[in-house]
Design goal:
17 helices; 8% strand; single chain; 2 domains; Rossmann fold; alpha/beta; five-stranded parallel beta sheet; elongated
Length: 351
């Protein structure tokens, strides 16, 4: 469970917030007067009167002590430009709307780019910066899906362009090395599937526009998981039967999310709803068969399965590229055999 330090100018409010966050965080709450004795950790949430000069001065001095990758999130009123500007001037790394929703805050913290940075400096850390648009897009989509806010489709478009460029320049293996360190299993999975799908499209000679479609499909395919309980999504062990049944609702939940979004292409809705369908009719949620499943869905399904096998989990190590590919072969009539055959060189290129 993540730890978070809450700074407030109201003891009553801080106590109430601690109760609401208890399910998601180990929470320590402090009044502004206690700042000199409080050590800054990785996550700090600040909710104070941003108009009081005395409070702002002391807080600004304290926040200068934050760790290099520490996140300082300020609570602000929706639509308040003045509070937003003031928060960033004091030292905020991000903003969060009032009233505070614990689950939504949990997703926001899971999306921080620092959480996928390797401890070593150099190219891996630089790569993290290069894919920050993808992480930001995921964060936006998942938090919007929880809160009911509109998805930022321009941010998604920027992320797809970024990920296509990074895969073309760096290749799949370096990307996997970085994102497998993300502590959110759901974000890790979406990033890996997106990278695998784009790499597959590159291998198949797809146009840039088609690779962007694959990137969008990869980033969006599990958006419904935003509405699955976090304790199931982030469970550090295999799911039981009841949890699996809940998890299997995520394609239809994803469709609900995207139906409200502007300018989502029907192909993307198809990917979100049907990426767990198999050619032999054994998939879900609709048991589609053969020609009922589009080529784009078939491609993302292969990337989805392969990506899951390549993930780093607390209860299982990632498979090698060859071992993961063998599982694809063993699935036989469930998958498009021609696409699986074409996937071999990509699978062999990953250690």
């Amino acid at each position: 469970m993540n730890r978070i330090t809450v700074i407030s100018d109201s003891v009553e409010w801080a106590s109430d917030l601690k109760v609401r966050l208890a399910q998601y965080f180990e929470t320590e709450c402090f009044h502004l007067d206690e700042l000199p004795d409080v050590a800054l950790g990785e996550f700090t949430f600040v909710d104070i009167n941003l108009i009081d000069p005395a409070q702002i001065s002391s807080l600004k001095r304290w926040l200068k002590r934050r760790p290099k990758n520490g996140q300082v999130i300020f609570g602000v009123n929706r639509g308040s430009h003045l509070e937003s500007v003031q928060a960033y001037a004091i030292g905020a790394t991000d903003l969060f709307p009032r009233p505070v929703d614990g689950k939504l805050l949990r997703w926001k913290l899971s999306g921080g780019i620092s959480s996928i940075a390797k401890s070593s400096a150099g190219s891996a850390s630089k790569f993290c910066e290069d894919i920050s648009a993808c992480v930001n897009a995921l964060q936006n989509m998942f938090t919007a899906a929880i809160s009911g806010a509109a998805l930022d489709m321009q941010l998604l478009k920027a992320a797809t362009a970024e990920i296509v460029a990074r895969i073309e320049e760096e290749g799949l293996a370096p990307f996997l090395d970085v994102v497998r360190n993300h502590h959110s299993q759901t974000y890790q999975h979406c990033l890996i599937v997106t990278a695998v799908a784009v790499s597959f499209g590159q291998h198949l000679g797809f146009s840039n526009a088609d690779k962007q479609r694959l990137a969008s499909g990869g980033l969006l395919h599990d958006i419904g998981k935003a509405r699955i309980p976090i304790e199931i999504l982030e469970k550090p062990a295999p799911l039981n039967e009841a949890e699996i049944a809940i998890m299997r609702t995520h394609p239809e939940l994803g469709l609900e999310v995207l139906r409200e979004a502007p300018a989502v292409h029907p192909e993307m809705l198809d990917v979100v709803l049907h990426h767990h369908e198999y050619l032999d009719g054994s998939g879900y949620p609709h048991g589609l068969r053969a020609n009922e499943i589009s080529d784009l869905v078939r491609t993302v399904t292969i990337a989805d399965i392969y990506g899951a096998l390549m993930e780093q989990r607390s209860y299982k190590p990632p498979l090698s590229g060859a071992d993961a590919y063998q599982i694809l072969l063993d699935m036989g009539p469930k998958l498009d055999k021609d696409l699986v055959r074409e996937f071999r060189p990509l699978a062999q290129s990953v250690g």
